[in-house]
């Protein structure tokens, strides 16, 4: 692979291997599972991810039609029921990402599964295979931005209600988290539904990108909705973020604290242009996130 490349492997609790690769500043990881060679040569289907895509029957109605939302669900080992972790996706980046792309993070799912959580990645309306129109918007307008966020929060609430009807999910409060728009939505949701939430995890959250003149107004407004959540939250941000500078994100956190919110803001070094994607670097966040989860009430024993 060339000079400077390294690969390390560690045994996972599942019996497989966790592989970590590094070449300069570029890192990646993979989960490796033993497979029977004879079965593979007979044409067996390879399960590339443990996540299972399912449709949630929700109470949402659009144009007179019921809405199903896709969710990718990762179950830990055991019979359950398990405490639920809901992880929310970001935007399409103004069209950089196709709305039809289903978003999830295997690294985060494995991390939470290992700690007893069943993990769901709901796809909001018009995203992935979900029904309905993707209409969260990118206008640099306060009313339109907050209207899009309200629509997203309604989708998250509908997905959680549907997930709670599953027999393998415990009735305990949930862990909620997300990436980018999903991060700020998770903080806001915790403040709107504090009795339902055990903890909130914000990966580089924000709604309106900093280049919008109304970004601070919009982002402050949404984070301040989460300030009524009485428990600590955790905010995980990277330097060199092309959407939100560290100064902008720290200002959002200051507005959240000023409104009464509790939390810890962590800043990680990232290479140029990669600060928005720290969720892809579990070597950065796994230690702090593990400590945060241990500070919460322990998940219900299965």
UniProtKB/TrEMBL annotation:
Pfam families: Hydrolase_4. InterPro entries: AB_hydrolase_fold, FrsA_esterase, Hydrolase_4. Keywords: Hydrolase. Gene3D superfamilies: alpha/beta hydrolase. Residues 105-201 form the Serine aminopeptidase S33 domain. The keyword Hydrolase applies. One of its GO terms (molecular function) is carboxylic ester hydrolase activity. This is Serine aminopeptidase S33 domain-containing protein.
């Amino acid at each position: 692979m060339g000079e400077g490349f390294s690969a390390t492997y560690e045994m996972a609790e599942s019996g497989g291997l966790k592989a970590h690769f590094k070449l300069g500043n570029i890192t990646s990881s993979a989960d490796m599972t033993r497979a029977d060679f004879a079965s593979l040569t007979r044409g067996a289907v390879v399960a590339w991810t443990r996540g299972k895509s399912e449709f949630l029957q929700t109470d949402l109605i659009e144009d007179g039609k019921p809405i199903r939302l896709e969710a990718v669900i990762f179950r830990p080992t055991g019979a359950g029921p398990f405490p639920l972790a809901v992880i929310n996706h970001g935007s399409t980046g103004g069209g950089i990402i196709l709305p039809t792309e289903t978003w999830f993070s295997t690294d985060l799912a494995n991390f939470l599964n290992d700690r007893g959580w069943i993990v769901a990645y709901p796809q909001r309306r018009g995203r992935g295979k979900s029904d309905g129109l993707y209409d969260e918007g990118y206008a640099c307008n306060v009313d339109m931005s907050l209207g899009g966020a309200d629509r997203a929060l309604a989708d998250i609430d509908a997905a959680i209600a549907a997930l709670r009807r599953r027999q393998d999910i415990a009735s305990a409060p949930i862990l909620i988290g997300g990436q980018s728009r999903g991060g700020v939505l998770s903080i806001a949701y915790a403040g709107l539904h504090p009795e339902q939430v055990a903890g909130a995890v914000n990966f580089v959250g924000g709604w309106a990108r900093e280049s919008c003149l109304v970004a601070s107004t919009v982002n402050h407004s949404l984070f301040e909705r989460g300030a009524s959540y009485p428990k600590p939250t955790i905010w995980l941000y990277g330097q060199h973020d092309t959407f939100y500078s560290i100064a902008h994100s720290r200002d959002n956190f200051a507005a959240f604290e000023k409104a009464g919110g509790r939390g810890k803001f962590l800043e990680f070094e990232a290479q140029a242009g990669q600060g928005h994607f720290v969720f892809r670097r579990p070597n950065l966040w796994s230690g702090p996130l593990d400590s945060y989860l241990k500070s919460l009430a322990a998940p219900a024993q299965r």
